[in-house]
Design brief:
single chain; alpha+beta; 60s Ribosomal Protein L30, Chain: A; five-stranded mixed β-sheet; 7 strands; rod-shaped; disordered C terminus; transmembrane
């Protein structure tokens, strides 16, 4: 037991060496960056939309190259000074500013002018074609209405439709057996009034304006000189207008009322033919509407009262109706509510119609 070796364990302790301070610098940099980052977030959170856009545009072009002049010295965007510019803003006159503006605007290219004219012409042509198509469709509808309505079919030999340069013309002619008006009067026969209402139901489907004209034959009546075929034709055209309006036709779609007396006979070979007494209703195309509007602005005067009056100077000569045209308005002999007078020839426009 006494011979066992004695083991002594000795632990040597070594003190640690001195540590450097580099980590403190890195940590300080990190904290500074975090502080700056949160500061930026705080500022952006309180910025308006306009301020955010300004900040964004700044970072897209911070130096401003995109808006800068390509020249070392900016002389108005060109290598030579602009003669209209001045160093003294107060000396720039309004006339000079306008002249500078005109010089800055490039002249329109010939191609663009031609293209614009071509586009306008194409648009106008398209509108005219659409107008023609609408009127042609209405013509077919009117023909179908006459064919399918017994009351109208009885008078189909007195009703004629035609496409003219002014639009769709509806002519309603008189006859000895089935007159439209009382002799020498603007009082409508009931069958003619019903005929107008039936036709008006079709033509009011289009927004086009209409023109109504009255015609008489050449028959003369003798009474006072205050009433003639001119007044009679005007009164009858206005009577047709009143019947249409009372039947629901929009009054603002009636462009004009005209009386032509015997100046545009349907049958010039027989001035006393009852077919010369007629009423013409023209569904106007856009060009004809514009021509009438310009004529009124240049001095035309058509008033629509209970009895329309027409300024004689505003009545323009109408081309004679073609031989296949038709319309209505019997010439008057003196009876009924209107005074009779010798019919003046087709020489002058009608004096204002008696109210």
């Amino acid at each position: 037991m006494d011979n066992k070796p004695i083991i002594v364990k000795r632990v040597k302790k070594f003190a640690g060496g001195h540590h450097g301070g580099a980590w403190k610098i890195a940590f300080a940099d990190f904290m500074t960056a975090m502080m700056a980052f949160f500061l930026v977030l705080w500022l952006l959170g309180g910025a308006t939309d306009e301020q955010l856009k300004a900040i964004s545009s700044y970072f897209q072009d911070p130096i401003g190259f995109s808006d800068a002049s390509p020249y070392v010295i900016d002389l108005g965007g060109s290598p030579t000074p602009a003669p209209q510019k001045t160093l003294n803003p107060e000396s720039v006159t309004q006339e000079g500013v306008q002249q500078m503006t005109k010089q800055a605007e490039p002249p329109p290219a010939a191609d663009s002018i031609n293209n614009g004219d071509a586009a306008n012409a194409k648009s106008s042509s398209t509108q005219d074609q659409q107008d023609q198509d609408n009127l042609a469709q209405m013509l077919r509808e009117l023909q179908a209405r006459v064919e399918n309505t017994p009351e109208l079919k009885r008078f189909q030999d007195q009703i004629h439709f035609e496409i003219t340069q002014d639009g769709l013309r509806i002519q309603i002619q008189d006859s000895k057996e089935k007159p439209m008006f009382n002799v020498g009067s603007d009082k409508l026969d009931p069958h003619f009034e019903d005929m107008l209402l039936d036709l008006g139901d079709v033509i009011k489907r289009l927004p086009n304006k209409i023109s109504i004209s009255g015609h008489t034959d050449a028959k003369s009546y003798y009474d006072t000189a205050e009433f003639s075929n001119w007044e009679l034709s005007t009164e009858r055209a206005n009577a047709a207008r009143r019947a249409l309006v009372e039947g629901g036709y929009p009054e603002d779609q009636i462009a004009r009322i005209v009386g032509y007396a015997a100046s545009a006979l349907y049958d010039p070979q027989d001035p006393y033919n009852p077919r010369n007494r007629r009423i013409d209703i023209i569904v106007l195309n856009k060009k004809a509407e514009e021509a009438i509007r310009q004529g009124e602005e240049n001095g035309g005067n058509i008033s629509k009262g209970d009895k329309d009056t027409i300024n004689p100077e505003s009545i323009q000569a109408e081309p004679k109706a073609p031989a296949d045209a038709s319309a209505t308005s019997p010439a008057a002999s003196a009876s009924g509510t209107l005074p009779n007078a010798p019919a003046e020839g087709a020489g002058n426009a009608a004096p204002a119609a008696t109210p």
